[in-house]
């Protein structure tokens, strides 16, 4: 009997990050896909020669993305990056704890994308080798060889004599404000990702501080016990030196001296640990200050976005008013033209009547 072996997907790289997905409605805001940092891994399927990015949160798959040569991973900040998955019709965003993790993920993404491109080229070469020895022009090349179609626009130029410059000005102003709003939204997304990372670091530091504070009291008790033991040993050493004991007492004195040195070294190590914990507490206060600053900047960006939205609404209203005014003017001109046509027809009738009278 021979066991049946089957090749499966193998993980080739793993890291931890906060996962986000773009809002499918607005296509501007990020929606957290996980409450905490989760494992994000690259997998390789040797049977199908396919690379995938997979991340599981709880019992569901947060990311299940097949890497294609057309994908691009973009760094939008020092600790945040994103890429688009056209098959899933979404954009994924990853927030990392350090810049080094972001750099490692970006390099691995490029490496996997190149590998996927090479795999596709090899598969295409195999298909070409199995086909008949005929040469056909690819459709893509034929499309590139053909020149783009010429577009000819013929129309009366007298209908463009008004409001064209006004429409162009309003449209350019509207596009400029939308661009400013999109830049503000990008800043808001980056700040949200940074705040999310800071909150995660803050929670980790708070947990470490709580654990350290719980251990400090125990360490203080141990230090007090060590100090009492040290004092007792020193008293014994002094007593032995005062009596000027014999050989066995000298040996006991050496043992006590060695124990005293060990206890002093242990006390020094505990003092260093307490100093390290105090420095971590200072770092915690600094992170709190950075978080408050980031929240303040986020609020400023939100206020700026609100102001830009109001400006866009005002511009759209002005544009609608201009269009209504132009339609009104067009209607007035059309009515004036109709009146002139009527007057001309009446004058023509009068002229014909005058000609008939003259002929008589």
Can you give a write-up of this model?
The chain is an alpha+beta fold and 360 residues long. The protein is built from four helices and eight strands, in the order ββββββββαααα. It has helices at 99-130, 139-145, 164-243, 247-359, and strands at residues 10-22, 30-32, 38-45, 50-57, 60-66, 74-75, 80-85, 90-95. β4 (50-57) and β5 form a beta hairpin. α3 packs antiparallel against α4 (247-359). It is elongated, with a radius of gyration of 40 Å. The N and C termini lie far apart (128 Å).
Secondary-structure element string:
EEEEEEEEHHHH
Structural class: alpha+beta
**Biggest sheet details:** 8 strands, antiparallel
Principal-axis shape equals elongated
Tally the beta strands: 8
> What is the helix content?
55-70%
* Uncertain stretches: 1-7, 132-163
Report the radius of gyration as a whole number of Å.
40 Å
Please, what is the average pLDDT?
77
Separation of termini?
A: 128 Å
Q: Please report which band the strand proportion falls in: under 5%, 5-15%, 15-25%, 25-35%, 35-45% or over 45%.
A: 5-15%
Number of helices: 4
Entry summary:
The protein is an alpha+beta fold and 360 residues long. The chain has helices at 99-130, 139-145, 164-243, 247-359, and strands spanning 10-22, 30-32, 38-45, 50-57, 60-66, 74-75, 80-85, 90-95.
């Amino acid at each position: 009997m021979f066991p049946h072996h089957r090749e499966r997907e193998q993980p080739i790289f793993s890291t931890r990050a906060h996962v986000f997905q773009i809002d499918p409605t607005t296509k501007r805001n990020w929606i957290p896909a996980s409450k905490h940092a989760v494992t994000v891994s690259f997998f390789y399927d040797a049977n199908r020669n396919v690379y995938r990015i997979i991340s599981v949160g709880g019992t569901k798959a947060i990311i299940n993305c097949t890497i294609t040569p057309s994908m691009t991973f973009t760094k939008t900040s020092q600790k945040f990056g994103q890429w688009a998955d056209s098959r899933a019709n979404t954009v994924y965003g990853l927030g990392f704890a350090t810049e080094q993790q972001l750099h490692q993920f970006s390099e691995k993404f490029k490496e996997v994308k190149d590998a996927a491109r090479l795999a596709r080229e090899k598969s295409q070469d195999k298909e070409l080798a199995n086909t008949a020895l005929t040469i056909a022009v690819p459709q893509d090349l034929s499309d590139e060889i053909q020149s783009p179609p010429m577009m000819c626009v013929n129309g009366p130029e007298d209908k463009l004599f008004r409001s064209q410059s006004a429409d162009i000005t309003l449209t350019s102003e509207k596009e400029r404000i939308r661009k400013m709003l999109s830049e503000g939204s990008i800043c808001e997304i980056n700040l949200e990702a940074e705040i999310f990372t800071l909150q995660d670091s803050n929670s980790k530091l708070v947990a470490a501080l709580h654990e350290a504070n719980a251990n400090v009291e125990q360490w203080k008790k141990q230090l007090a016990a060590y100090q009492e033991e040290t004092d007792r040993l020193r008293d014994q050493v002094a007593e032995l030196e005062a009596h000027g004991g014999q050989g066995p007492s000298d040996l006991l004195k050496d043992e006590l001296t060695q124990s005293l040195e060990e206890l002093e070294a242990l006390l020094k190590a505990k003092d260093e640990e307490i100093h390290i914990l105090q420095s971590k507490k200072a770092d915690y206060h600094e992170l709190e200050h950075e978080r408050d600053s980031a929240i303040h900047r986020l609020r400023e960006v939100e206020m700026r976005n609100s102001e830009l939205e109001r400006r866009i609404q005002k511009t759209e209203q002005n544009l609608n008013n201009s269009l209504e005014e132009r339609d009104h003017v067009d209607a007035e001109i059309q009515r004036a033209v109709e009146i002139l046509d009527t007057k001309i027809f009446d004058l023509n009738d009068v002229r014909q009547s005058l000609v008939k009278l003259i002929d008589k």
